[in-house]
Amino acid sequence: MFPRITDYAHQLLEQRIQPGAHVIDATMGNGHDTVFLAQQVGETGKVYSFDIQQQALDSTRQLLVKRHLEQRARLFLQSHAMMDFPAESIDAVVFNLGYLPRSDKTITTQAETTIESIKRALRFLKVGGLIVVVVYWGHEQGKIEKQAVEQFVEGLPFPEFMVLRYQYMNPLNQPPFVLAIERRRRPTVD
Amino acid sequence: MFPRITDYAHQLLEQRIQPGAHVIDATMGNGHDTVFLAQQVGETGKVYSFDIQQQALDSTRQLLVKRHLEQRARLFLQSHAMMDFPAESIDAVVFNLGYLPRSDKTITTQAETTIESIKRALRFLKVGGLIVVVVYWGHEQGKIEKQAVEQFVEGLPFPEFMVLRYQYMNPLNQPPFVLAIERRRRPTVD
């Protein structure tokens, strides 16, 4: 059977993240991806995780401590649109677009800040690195964000970047889907 | 790196096809998929391959003989829209939509016959079976066919069927993409 969409996102990340990797969870939420990433990067790697809600940091910290992984992650109470890292220093970035499950559904990611964040992530990304975006678009704001993000990634220059859409087409109710961007090479200078 | 689209199609098929499987190559073309499928089904399995051009059968026969796989395949000089097998007897079906490479480019698969063929394939398919459609749509007729096929597969009932789109979004010139349909269960009768 085809994997669940969140499992597919994890498969893509697993294939790319080696022990010692530096990775970003741009949308910490309840912390499940931060924990997953902390398992992948090993003792010598690091996860940098962002969220604008204190509740997200608290849940994530709790999960990490329970699994004895708290040394592998740094949590930032900050929008992913503000994240800043050196160029070509990051192996992978994950975004879960939408709202924090079981919390205030009026606080969602927004098209403009999401695209600013993806642009930043592209600059941080090593050649061979990967950005995985899981697009939840069942809510009103989500449809606008989906279109904006699709349009942005479709315009990324090939072959410097390769953009994958992995989507289940026939379930009703706008099921989430994956957009993944790999950085294949530096831009060619003529 | 993300796989080439034809390699991804083969990965999907490989995961599903066990030795002894009965599978269909609906669009034989130059025979590369028939050979690939013959390798997967083993000595006890069978590949049924269709094409309306004698040239396709000749090339395919030649390739099979070269690899000593001719016992594993039956080649039909017949449209895939005419293929007929018992219900739930087939493990996998592959379609390459478009024209036969290096041949008469006016002979292409057509929206109407393609959809008729996919409908047939859905009836032959075992529960747990898979249809893989590689959509080449760089030619004029291809754009019409692409839209018709997309619309058809989006309407397939979930959870009886699950339909996957796997597509690279940013290369120019309408690169081919994969639509894959798995049959998950029989229809529920209330």
TrEMBL record, chains A, B:
A biological-process GO annotation: methylation
Gene3D superfamilies, sorted: Vaccinia Virus protein VP39
Database matches in Pfam families: rRNA_methylase
UniProt keyword terms in alphabetical order: Methyltransferase, Transferase
Highest taxon of source: Bacteria
Coiled coil stretches, renumbered: none
GO molecular function: methyltransferase activity
PANTHER family: S-ADENOSYL-L-METHIONINE-DEPENDENT METHYLTRANSFERASES SUPERFAMILY PROTEIN, TRNA (MNM(5)S(2)U34)-METHYLTRANSFERASE, CHLOROPLASTIC
Name by which UniProt lists this protein: 16S rRNA (Cytosine(1402)-N(4))-methyltransferase
